[in-house]
Amino acid sequence: MAAQSAIHTSASLQAANAPTFASMEGQLDPALLRGLKEMKFDFMTPVQEQVLQRLPSMGSDCLVQAKTGTGKTIAFLIPAIQNILQYSTRKGQVSILVLSPTRELAVQIADEAKLLVSKFKRPIEVHTAVGGTTKESALSKFKLGDPKILVATPGRLNDYLSEGNVRAKFDDMKTLILDEADRMLDAGFLPAILQILHALPPKSGPKGQWQGMCFSATVPPKMEQVFAHILSKDHVAVSTIDKSEPPTLAKVPQFSVLIAKVEQTFTALYSILEEEIKATEGVPKIIVFGTTAKLVALYAKIYDRQLGLPVFELHSRLTQTARTRATAAFKETKTGIMFASDVIGRGMDFPDVSLVLQVGLPADADAYTHRVGRTARAGKDGKAILLLTEAESFYLKANRQFPIQPYPHSDTVVNDASATIVNDVLQTIEPEVKQKAYSAYLGFMKVATNKMRMTPEQLVGMANVFAVDGMGCEEVPPMEKSTISKMGLKGVRGINYATKSNPTPAQRGPASFAKATQAPPKGRNGPRAAKSSEKQFPSSNSMLARPRQQGRHRGRGGNGEAEAW
Ligand code: ADP
Ligand code: MG
């Protein structure tokens, strides 16, 4: 059964006349070919075919662009591994270094590499160096072992490289690979990458040249300069994407739902999930992407038991143990809903995701492409939905390259039945969780103020409606002065400043919540509720009026996530 489904997968992922890996006998080491056979990979995907057949040698530098879920990992691992086999490397020396933007992706790449080298008689050790784990145990294994392949995230690797004896283990490095290369070289990561490069042997040194490989589904124009840090001038550029086609997978139907008001978000999300679960033939396996960690945490709490599917949660505010557990469980499960931030927006390979649902603005155009790419991987089917408010609809106009259609059930996603269910749950959720979600929302949306043609006052008004009418907060949640300043919202009307006598829910503690739940406010989240809010705050619709103030550049943490407040 397993073998059959693997054959089916291969058949639909590859072109009709795809060459087999077996046809590379003589060019690829027999142990590599046995590893591929063991993984049930018989035919090359187009990017694997291009890389293996277009590179002048297995040690050539390359910049490779291919769509999400088309097998780029194997496409960089095979040449890099084949390349190092010609050298007699010293024990304890790293030969291949792979850099990844997130811990989860680093572990996934290492797992794939381990399978690929599993048939070598003399074991090729694959190590990881990622944050969130105790450095000491992985580092001592790394120091004592023979880590021919190291997959790392930049932060932890820089930690490692601060020790001279660790740095020396990279003296013979033969290949440096940047997966999600455009992300690794963007403003958020570039300083860390430059620091790493500074500690590594020079690109062309006394020991020869190391091979540079950059892979991604998205390669924004004007990146030549940064690629020059990794790639030689005569590198081979490979792309399996036609410039005239949309950047997302053609086989993924993509829809948008526009809701009038931000406070309808939770109701609409509930209705869409319910509809999609009902409509799924087979088993629904859904990823819901939210804009920030704190909003994702709130979604996970709201929809935990209502939809009859197991719920998973993954974002930067969880412990690494919880992140690792959620990743493994969602890879394993046949069905369920994963609520996630951009921590898993790129690269992650969860088998058989049937739907990707994005709530709120993706960080940019490429974020949309990568998130959609979590479905329809390895030739499978998938579907994508983007839920936006009218105020956020500029995103669709600014990104017409995506084949996004209006969602057929748009008119009915805000309804009383869903609103009632959602409101009941919201009353059971701690004010602290809501306050954090409110603050996160405000921080995230601040950067889009200009694009939404809003004034800061209108933005705060919209966030306040979201908190009071959407989340069912008793009042506009108080925020600490320092947070407000960091967001650049000091002095903006509508903000509730926390003081000693007006503490935030976190400062107040859980006792106040027990009291609040005895007489919960009712029915504020549905279509009826929207009216009452308009009296207190400007509605999101009325906010489309005046263009104002340039938004701040959106900073991102090393987690691939938009900065969470
Ligand atoms: P990308 O990096 O392009 O997004 P991945 O390398 O994560 O894609 O691969 C996507 C999926 O396809 C993975 O589950 C991987 O195991 C599978 N895969 C890769 N190469 C092949 C192949 N030649 N035949 C069948 N499945 C493959
Ligand atoms: Mg990948």
Automatic annotation (TrEMBL):
<comment type="similarity">
    <text>Belongs to the DEAD box helicase family.</text>
</comment>
<dbReference type="InterPro" id="IPR000629">
    <property type="entry name" value="RNA-helicase_DEAD-box_CS"/>
</dbReference>
<feature type="domain" description="DEAD-box RNA helicase Q">
    <location>
        <begin position="21"/>
        <end position="49"/>
    </location>
</feature>
<dbReference type="InterPro" id="IPR011545">
    <property type="entry name" value="DEAD/DEAH_box_helicase_dom"/>
</dbReference>
<protein>
    <recommendedName>
        <fullName>ATP-dependent RNA helicase</fullName>
        <ecNumber>3.6.4.13</ecNumber>
    </recommendedName>
</protein>
<dbReference type="GO" id="GO:0005730">
    <property type="term" value="C:nucleolus"/>
</dbReference>
<comment type="function">
    <text>RNA helicase.</text>
</comment>
<dbReference type="InterPro" id="IPR027417">
    <property type="entry name" value="P-loop_NTPase"/>
</dbReference>
<feature type="domain" description="Helicase ATP-binding">
    <location>
        <begin position="53"/>
        <end position="237"/>
    </location>
</feature>
<keyword id="KW-0694">RNA-binding</keyword>
<keyword id="KW-0347">Helicase</keyword>
<dbReference type="InterPro" id="IPR001650">
    <property type="entry name" value="Helicase_C-like"/>
</dbReference>
<dbReference type="GO" id="GO:0016787">
    <property type="term" value="F:hydrolase activity"/>
</dbReference>
<keyword id="KW-0067">ATP-binding</keyword>
<feature type="short sequence motif" description="Q motif">
    <location>
        <begin position="21"/>
        <end position="49"/>
    </location>
</feature>
<dbReference type="InterPro" id="IPR014014">
    <property type="entry name" value="RNA_helicase_DEAD_Q_motif"/>
</dbReference>
<dbReference type="GO" id="GO:0003723">
    <property type="term" value="F:RNA binding"/>
</dbReference>
<dbReference type="GO" id="GO:0003724">
    <property type="term" value="F:RNA helicase activity"/>
</dbReference>
<keyword id="KW-0698">rRNA processing</keyword>
<dbReference type="GO" id="GO:0006364">
    <property type="term" value="P:rRNA processing"/>
</dbReference>
<dbReference type="Pfam" id="PF00270">
    <property type="entry name" value="DEAD"/>
</dbReference>
<feature type="region of interest" description="Disordered">
    <location>
        <begin position="496"/>
        <end position="565"/>
    </location>
</feature>
<dbReference type="Pfam" id="PF00271">
    <property type="entry name" value="Helicase_C"/>
</dbReference>
<feature type="domain" description="Helicase C-terminal">
    <location>
        <begin position="265"/>
        <end position="418"/>
    </location>
</feature>
<keyword id="KW-0547">Nucleotide-binding</keyword>
<dbReference type="InterPro" id="IPR014001">
    <property type="entry name" value="Helicase_ATP-bd"/>
</dbReference>
<dbReference type="GO" id="GO:0005524">
    <property type="term" value="F:ATP binding"/>
</dbReference>
<keyword id="KW-0378">Hydrolase</keyword>
